[in-house]
Specification:
Elements lengths: L5 E13 L3 H6 L14 E7 L5 E11 L2 E7 L3 H10 L7 E5 L2 E7 L13 E3 L8 E7 L8 E2 L2 H11 L19 H7 L10 H9 L6 E8 L12 E4 L2 E8 L6 E7 L7 E4 L7 E7 L8
Parallel strand pairs: 1-9
Antiparallel strand pairs: 1-4, 1-5, 1-6, 2-3, 3-4, 6-8, 7-8, 10-13, 10-15, 11-12, 11-14, 12-13, 14-15
């Protein structure tokens, strides 16, 4: 393990929500308690369809009295703005996509103590291990004492910590609880008022989060996964039970979304298509704790 934290540059979309009704409007559209955020604070949230299906997984940062930044995966801003505009009736809240922003994801022991470079916005990552902070801005620079990392490094950590991502484990058909305990813990408030899509979230929670699909970690029993396995179908016998979400070429573990019938310890077959498939054992997606 590196003695210093790593910093990984991640493309990121940013949308600014501003105006006297901005917080009230977002409070009614997000799963998180946006209204209680202090200036300078941030929190993960989801925006849902009225059916309760996922539209966006994002972070909300309050930068002023009536000014908030929404940051989310690159390429997802248009879908978010379109969804929010549908519900913005007689509301004084402007939704403005910002250009040129990106993210520096700082991960590893000591990440919380890293200094924030001038011009950067420090936002909460809230990863299970706690060894994480995100720096948001235009052309983010590596802080002193942080080593340059790669997208594969970040993917390895996501798999290890059980952190899902849009376009991988999360998509438009996702029910929020299918994203796992971490997602629900950091992105959903069960004490705030009503929001769009709340009915399904509350109903699933009341029934013990027994969703049709679950986030699982897969461990290959015959060599490592390949990059081509991303999105590959998973089978038990001839029955399709899910798909692979995140892999790193050559690594023995992956994140996947599988049917609830697949229990920890079950074997699943990865359909490799043109690439060679493999067999993997299903594991809990809870964070893997380092020895010692």
């Amino acid at each position: 393990m590196n003695a210093a934290p790593i910093g990984v540059r991640v493309p990121r979309d940013v949308v600014r929500a501003s105006g006297p009704d901005a917080r009230t409007f977002l409070q009614g559209q997000c799963t998180q308690d946006v209204a209680s955020l202090a200036v300078g604070a941030s929190a993960w949230a989801m925006v849902l369809e009225p059916s309760g299906r996922l539209v966006s997984f994002l972070r909300v940062t309050r930068t002023g009295e009536d000014d908030l930044l929404l940051d989310l995966d690159a390429g997802c801003a248009e879908q978010l703005v379109t969804r929010l505009q549908r519900f913005k009736l007689r509301t004084l809240c402007d939704l403005t996509p910002e250009e040129g922003w990106s993210l520096l994801a700082v991960r590893g022991p000591g990440a919380d103590g890293v200094a924030t470079p001038p011009g950067m916005l420090r936002v909460a990552a809230s990863w299970p291990s706690g060894d994480a902070v995100d720096l948001l801005g235009v052309d983010p620079v590596l802080p002193a004492g942080v080593l340059e990392g790669s997208s594969d490094d970040l993917a390895r950590l996501r798999i290890r910590e059980g952190v899902p991502a849009m376009g991988a484990e999360l998509g438009e058909d996702t029910i929020p609880a299918e994203g796992g305990a971490w997602l629900m813990g950091v992105a959903v408030s069960f004490t705030k008022g009503c929001y769009t899509g709340q009915e399904l979230v509350a109903r699933v929670d009341a029934r013990g989060s027994n969703t049709p699909h679950r986030l699982r970690r897969l461990r290959s029993v015959e060599g490592g996964f390949r990059a081509e396995h991303v999105g590959a179908a998973l089978f038990v016998g001839d029955r399709a039970v899910g798909r692979v979400g995140t892999t790193v070429d050559g690594e023995p573990v992956a994140l996947a979304v599988v049917h609830r019938s697949v229990e920890v310890g079950d074997l699943v077959r990865v359909d490799g298509g043109a690439a060679a498939g493999c067999t993997a054992v299903a594991e809990d997606a809870e964070p893997v704790r380092a020895a010692g």
